[in-house]
Amino acid sequence: MKRLALGLTLGTSLLAGCPGPVDPDVADDVSSNITQNTTWTADKVYTLKGYIFVESGTLTIEPGTQVVGEEGSALIITRNAKLNAVGTAARPIVFTSAKPEGERAAGDWGGVVLLGKAKINVAGGTNTVEGFFATSGDERTKYGGDDDAHDCGKLKYARIEFAGFELAEDNELNGLTTGACGSATELDYIQVHKGADDGVEMFGGTANLKHIVISQPDDDGLDYDLGYTGKVQFLVVQQNDRVGNRAIEASGNKTTNTATPRSVPEIWNASFIGSGRAAASTGTKQEGLVFNTGAGIKLNNAIVAHFADKAVDVDGAASAQLSESGNLTIKNTIFWMNKGNTTSIDYSSNPVKDAAGNTTNEDATRLSNDTIYREPDQLLATVNNNRVVDPMLSAAVNAKTPNFKPTAESQALITSNSATPPADGFFDTSAKFIGAVGSTDWTAGWTGYPEN
Amino acid sequence: MAESATPPPGFTGVYGQVTDAQTQETLIEATVKVVNGGQKSVLTDIDGNYQLALPPGKYDLRVFYDVYEGRRITGVIVEQGKATRLDVQLSADAGAVQEVVVEARADRRAEGALLQERKKAAAVSDSISSQEIARTPDSSASDAVKRVVSVTVVDGRFMLLRGLGGRYSVTLLNGALLPSPEPDEPSVPLDLFPTSLLANLNVVKSYTSDLPGTFGGGTLLIETNTYPSKFEFKPRITFSGDSVSTFQQRNTHPGSFLEALSFAGPDRHLPSGLPQGERMGSAAGTWQSFPNIWSARQSTALPNMGLGASLGDTLRFGNSRLGYLATVNYGHKESVRVSEFARADMPVGQLQAQDATRAVQGTEGATLSALASVGYQFDRDNELTFFSLYTRGTDSNTFTSRGVNNGRSETFESTRLQFVSRALSFNQVRGFHRLNTLADAELDWQANFSRVDRDEPDTRDTLYSDDLGSPTGKFAFPNQPNSGERFFGTLGETSTGGSASLTLPFSDLRLKAGGLAQVSLRDFEARRFRYQLTDDPVDTSLPPEELFASSNLGTGIRMRETTRGDDAYDAYLGVFAGFVTADYKPVEPLRLVGGVRVEQSLQQLTAHSPFDTSPTASTHASYLDVLPAFNAVYALRPDMNLRAGYSYTLARPTFRELAPFIFFDFVRRRNVSGNPNLLETRIHNLDTRLEWFVGENEVLAASVFYKNFQSPIERILRYSGDMGFENADGANSFGAELEARASLGRITPALSNFRAAANLTLIQSNIVLTDPEKLGAQTNSRRPMQGQSPYVINLNLGYDRPESGTEVAVLYNVYGPRISEVGLNPLPDVYERPFHRVDLSVSQKLGNGLQLKLTGSNLLDSAVVLDQGGITILKYRPGIAFSAALGWTL
């Protein structure tokens, strides 16, 4: 009975996003790697003391369990192991910072890493996950293979807060990092809040994402690379007015942009929300969707609104030329108030300069006939059924208590503006609306937006 | 009483004359001694003649004289009723005017002596004497060693032998392994050693078992000066500069005046209020205790200056002698380097240059070094030497760069302020004893203790960025790694050990046995801190001194300790070895040298957090290796040798290559980390060589070699762009070397003041990568070894007019294109283009013991260029350098 009461108390405090001082009776320090089937139960608070590798077996985490990470810690599910962390809407699993409430910040700990054996587009077929020193001998940080149906496990009804670790420039752990997870992996109802570097980064593979909230990441919201070809439905990316760069950063392969598989996921029903701040007069830009180094997208029923500096940037010839084969398409999408623009979206140039700073090519983003790819001309073509109109969301730019539901009179709910998701077993075909959230708010109850 | 030059009829024994090899003057009271079969000896008379009556047989003789190199002549045949004539020349070059206290070993300073030694050496070797060094513009060992066949010097500091990487080049200082003060480089930076310290540099290219088992391209034997025969005090002043630095604008940043004296200033160190043994925490007061200096400033680079002095003498006490030599050197250097950097990528089928960046580095460096050597010769057969070297240096680097990050669609401006101090202390006691038993057996021993420190306190990085496509014109703090970061790293390594060997010089057989024990311990620890934006608004376009000002710390800006779990490591290397070699002459022209070395090593490394000793990664490699070596020397003629050798040797990964610790390469904008899983490399070596010692100081030589590497370690780029180290499956390297040194007086006597030397090395190598795991994302499974040049050429023309004290030398050096980094995914390999170097040196005696030396280096103003499939990845010009040095001999 005591245990139940404790569980209830913990559950309540977790929902409030408030760990409070950890009771020594329930504290469990995790400082060694996991090599066999292990279960973490809701009556304890698990503290990650360093990089914890699940080397083999399955790590099961019960609903309502709290896992806190100290500085320099992370939970890594290697490609020979699985995660089974399935919470419930009432009792989500919470991964958060070990610091006391009020002192927590993005990057306090390293986040959750899932590694698998699906295909990536790096020569040789395997890679070492970012955020770790890379050596051929360390099996634990490797990902990639030939098994596109690989199963990294399940992560459902879970929040990952204040995570991410920037080892170095372009070498980071994110709130949730996946490397080559395959299609059997289940990632559903996950919030990554205040993650550094990116909220979620998918390095190749075919894992699908559903019901994902990425709130106020330090850098990008959803970052995908190295031939990611999964399916995504019901995705919210919300940025705040302080940090955060791109809602989507899509990359292919940075040395050989045309390496296959190309990074072309299919995404339905997504809301990409900037902070609505004024255009930056200096420094880091707040941008909507950026496609570079040969990455594409098949995006439908999306909202791209309130980004301070840019709606869409197709960067580089390899990405631009994907539009010619239907692998960089944005359809049935609402753009609104990006860089204050209420009638169109802005053209984004990608000049090339030499070491002296002289421009050698005014824009490297060119189609195969050498004409410059101009985002407004390409994306607002009638055939795409895109529009620049106010989506009338309830409180999407509110950082503390956001609400991504469109109001009743929103154009996002007009069926003819949207398309029907394909009936392939993954997509919810009833989502005949624009944006991540329709008339039912699936984010309610299990998400949280703590400031610190 | 003078002996007559010719012995009377019927005399059975040896007779002859002992002369100075240089002046041909006869030597009075030189000793001629039989070292086997009786202890008989005589002195030469006033005409340098001697007669030594001996029963018939085969003898080994030693001839020695106070200020000359002693010589051993083996296999002298005495027949009944016959007088065997044996004239002996001592010391090869009077110009060196150095007394040889160590009688048993040659004064190797003189070129002629070196060639003599090389002729006698059991193994293939190439040497350069102090005399030869003095003729070049060389100011440090790294410059001087370039003059040796197949030697290439990288970054002006690190030696590559036969075009192989630094790991394959071992440096022994007076017979002891020298630790490297550079944790990132496997070899010893040779610019530590000013040329005035050098007696000679000897590069051994075929292995003999008395050398450490770590042998790949070769072993550099550095011998420091022996002692002047009379009191000597030599001050020296040098001024130098180069075309890209001197009187040009130079990046700089404030530091203490102590730094000009090669010591770190007090403001560089971690603030005293910072907790040791735990993370910094979130007290803004602690954050505010760091010095708030981030930006580069400008000054004008002044000429470099060097001051040095050496002092030495030999004191005699009856039969005993005490020699000493001490040198002190101070140098101050200011330099500028402007590099252009780019990254190659392939958007749609064609390589293009991305991320074009120009980086400017301003460096102010100071070095202070002192050396003392004291030798005490108890008598002719016993000697003790104390050697102590202390050298320290500082580099205050200020980097700025401006360029494009195409991946982020940004332009950026970044700055790094870096200060590095290095210190190396090496102490050695050596003994030499001739035992007067066992055919005059010789016992050599040495014990050493060394300490290396490298301190990099408070390296500060900032990067500000602006949009590439639609610039605002203002750069701002982007809240990302490598911007607003501080790094502190300290490294200390202690090494102690000793070795001993016993030589039994029988007449046809020379046996040598010995052992070595050496233990090294290293500690490394780093801490990192980063400034980040908070949720409180702050103007990010403020310059860093304002953005990170105390008033913002705790409000708009917070500090976080970003020290990683593998930012510290402890490492241990223990090597224990024993060897036996036999040097045997079965028939007169043939000499066989064979041996075996058993070497046991234990290499351990534990990476951990600086706050916690529990390991995050570790390695424990224990090896027991049996290393055979065979060399055969066949004297085709007295002045011509044919040699062949086989040996099996090792190369170990360095601590740095094993440590998973990561650091950021500012100029190349990438991370570098080690690999705890690296294996020891094993190498089969085959060498043959034909050499002809044509005349005094003249040689013609040709060699062919083959090496087979098992698990060679290579520098590999990863997909992320970061650099690491991996074992390849194997590699093969085939090579040929040609060398000629001659006086042009051979052509016409009018040219007798001219001498020319040339050497050429041709190498073909290929790496074997059959294991797909090891091949990884690398583009080519067949390619040359990383770092291996296909050719190395040195040309050298000298003019020497002793009567006016004039010497002129022109030198040319080039190495062929070599893989700097292995390409991957699937870009081509990155090649370093050939660098053509021409140097000129003029030296003139001015009288009164004054000597002026003027040098010009890199007169062609060549550029260092890295090229990847036609894209220039990195380019900089080191500039044309000039120096003027004035030396006195008092």
TrEMBL record, chain A:
<protein>
    <recommendedName>
        <fullName>Lipoprotein</fullName>
    </recommendedName>
</protein>
